[in-house]
Amino acid sequence: MWMYLGLLAALFLGLHNLCKKHAVQGNEVLPVLLGTVCSGFLLLLPFFIGSIYFPEFTKQIGFHITSISWKTHGFIFIKSMIMATSWILAYQALKHLPLTIVTPIRSAGPFFTFIGAILIYQEKPNFLQWIGFSLIIFSVILYSKIGKKEGINFKRNKWIFAIIGATFLGASSGLYDKFLIQNLTLNPQTLQFWFCWYTILILLGILSVTWFPNTVKRKEFKWRWTIIAVGVLLQAADYFYFRSLQDPDALIMLLSAIKRSQILIAVIVGGLVFKEKNKRKKLVPLLGIMMGVFLILYS
């Protein structure tokens, strides 16, 4: 069941990436990010209020937000710091790079998670899993070659380093999620609610210095319906992902790879919607990544 929940998370992540590309194109990145997190927070807020005044009902429907210690709040705040940094880097890169380049680089996330899963959680990959991960990394290298034809030099373009940094931090957060869900026994909605709250506080602190005082930047911001869609879709994806992690048999390195099947939606649909170049050539490494994910699932 945890693998199917991972696939559901991948579906919502793929749709989330499409909406995110539309939300940030020609727009101010940080207020867009704040808007998406606020949208997710407002989606969860009724469950928080319901958990205070109607606890039996929220428990019955499976969306009760539990009381947690200050120490646990501290652990969630650390996750918010990691992900806020990752998102800022990723959103900036997405604004300046084609979706069909950004998404495959993000697909290298399982490799970082793979290393962490072996070193931290002693997860033991078998032969097919090794092949699967190798295929994913090789396919990402292939994408870099195609990216050069779009005027993107992977060695000199700072947004490439930004998306690599975002991918590494995202993978670190994935490893941290297993600790939060399994070791601290947090339920998904409790983690999601407080994570959104602390991320909003972090972003408000950054924006109060970099964006709110700047009249020109404030005028450049454009509100789009996809800002709300990004927040809602991300919460849906995270919910299914955290539910899958609640299974003690769930392997974080495999879940991370399964989530990368979102690339199918991002590259094919994104290529059609945003009219990005070299779509046919990108299908070759896309198939490589999908084959790598399949081998991991099959194993």
TrEMBL record:
Q: Which UniProt keywords apply?
A: Membrane, Transmembrane, Transmembrane helix
Which SUPFAM superfamilies did the record assign? Multidrug resistance efflux transporter EmrE (SSF103481)
Q: Which positions fall inside the EamA domain?
A: 2-143, 158-297
Q: Which residues cross the membrane?
A: 29-54, 75-94, 127-147, 159-176, 191-213, 225-244, 250-274, 283-298
Taxonomy, superkingdom: Bacteria
Alphabetized InterPro entries for the sequence = EamA_dom, EmrE-like
Report if keyword Nucleus is assigned: no
- Name-wise, this protein is EamA family transporter
Per the UniProt entry, what species is this protein from, by scientific name?
Flavivirga jejuensis
